[in-house]
Amino acid sequence: MDKRDGVWCFRSGANSAVTDDTYRAGGGVIGCTCAYYLTRHPLYDRKTHSITIIEAVKIAAGSSGKAGGLLQIDAEPACISPLSFKLHAQLAEEYGGHKRWGYRRVHVGETDLDGRGGMNNAAATENYPSSLDWLLPSSIKSYKKVGTPEDSAQVHPYFFTTAVAEMAQEKGVKIIYGTVQGIRYNADLTNVEGVAYYATPTSQDIIVVPATDVIVAAGPWTSSIIPSVAVGGAKSHGVVIKPSRPISNNCLWASIKPGLSGHPRRSINLELYPRPDGTLYSCNWADADAVLPASSDLVDVDEGKCKEICDALGGISDELLGAEVLVSQAGHQPVILKEGRRAKNSGPLLGRTGVKGVLLATGHDSWGVQNAPATGLLASEVVFEGAPKSADICSLDPRTIVQKSLLV
């Protein structure tokens, strides 16, 4: 049985005597920030609104807990990234995010590196920050500044997501662990009526909860809930290692030509994100052709790919050579598909669909953690006020691709 999560349901008591109102949502960073901002909306009343997260595995079980956590004011899409960058700063200030989820401002650079033992170890002529003293000078072939502490920051995605979930729970949000079976509609598919889920992965008993609004925030598993929404999962591998000494807050997008003996001379593209806890996160570029498993707990980890990352890191830095590997992991980030392939410069899908009460908040590609706060705020505005108020998201309107006749 597929483990489907990422669905919110809302039953409004505004026009009835019913006061046990309900939301259901998935436990990734998008679902949890939706929960948080719904509970902070001025029209939210925990006496008449009951908000529940439905999660198949655990909070931040997928890529939300395994991402790099880079934040940039000029990330994609431009219509929401500046707002979300600002909201991240506000959340960190209000809730002590510097300690709770590792929020800090960072430098970001794009670089070409050549590992030790390479064919050409002449140092680059371009200027690069002196704080990059943890890279072998001879490895740096080129360096381009792409971010500063004024416009770039980072968080630890797992700690951020779980903290936001906890802050939502403080305002009345409940968490249910279950496998979503599907959305329930009225006879002519014009309105949502509820969500059906299995209480356990092996259960055949379906539980149906009523709803007037459903936000689908299922990430790469969105198509299992609404088949007409073409969202897939690009898979990347990553490691968390412990450098031999503390290193600077310089995040890198690097093309590395490994130089260690026994490794091919082809380049490997990696992201390198030092964290304030003294670790370094690194991942390879995502493979959009990877097969998506039924749920996040079934994602397999190719230890060979993780070793390749560690070997490449060791080739450019004494501090990273032979570093203790704390985590080896893999995850699928949600990507919009076009004709079965990853669509460039597309997504997320954010807003209402052709069925009254069904909203989408999915397909954030590489910028899910970055754009989660804006997504949650805008989704809360759509639910409570009927339209987004804080940003113009017409370009993200799901109704451009989702027809109500195809929703089930």
Q: CATH superfamily name of the largest domain?
A: FAD/NAD(P)-binding domain
- Please summarize the sheet with the most strands: 8 strands, mixed
Terminal-residue CA separation: 18 Å
- Kindly report the spatial arrangement of strands forming the biggest sheet: 7-6-15-16-17-14-18-19
Number of strands: 21
Kindly provide the name of the CATH class of the largest domain: Alpha Beta
Helix content: 10-25%
What CATH architecture of the largest domain would you give?
3-Layer(bba) Sandwich
CATH-derived topology of the largest domain: FAD/NAD(P)-binding domain
How big is the Rg?
A: 22 Å
Query: Pairing-aware structural class of the strands and helices?
Result: alpha+beta
Helix segment tally: 6
Strand residues, percent: 25-35%
Assembly type of the chains comes to: single chain
Helix and strand pattern: EEHEEHHEEEEHEEEEEEEEEHEEEEH
Instruction: Note poorly predicted spans.
Output: 1-5, 9-22
Mean pLDDT equals 88
Task: Kindly give the count of domains.
Answer: 2
Indicate the overall shape: globular
Defining traits:
408 residues; 2 domains; eight-stranded mixed sheet; 6 helices; 18% helix; disordered N terminus
Ordered list of secondary-structure elements with their pairings:
Layout: E1 7-10, E2 21-25, H1 29-40, E3 49-55, E4 70-72, H2 81-95, H3 97-100, E5 104-105, E6 107-114, E7 140-147, E8 152-154, H4 157-169, E9 174-177, E10 179-185, E11 192-198, E12 206-210, E13 213-216, E14 231-242, E15 250-257, E16 268-274, E17 280-284, H5 303-314, E18 324-338, E19 341-342, E20 349-352, E21 358-362, H6 368-385
Parallel strand pairs: 2-3, 3-9, 6-15, 13-21
Antiparallel strand pairs: 1-13, 4-8, 5-8, 6-7, 10-11, 11-12, 14-17, 14-18, 15-16, 16-17, 18-19, 20-21
Organism: Polytolypa hystricis (strain UAMH7299)
Domain FAD dependent oxidoreductase: 26-381
Protein name: FAD dependent oxidoreductase domain-containing protein
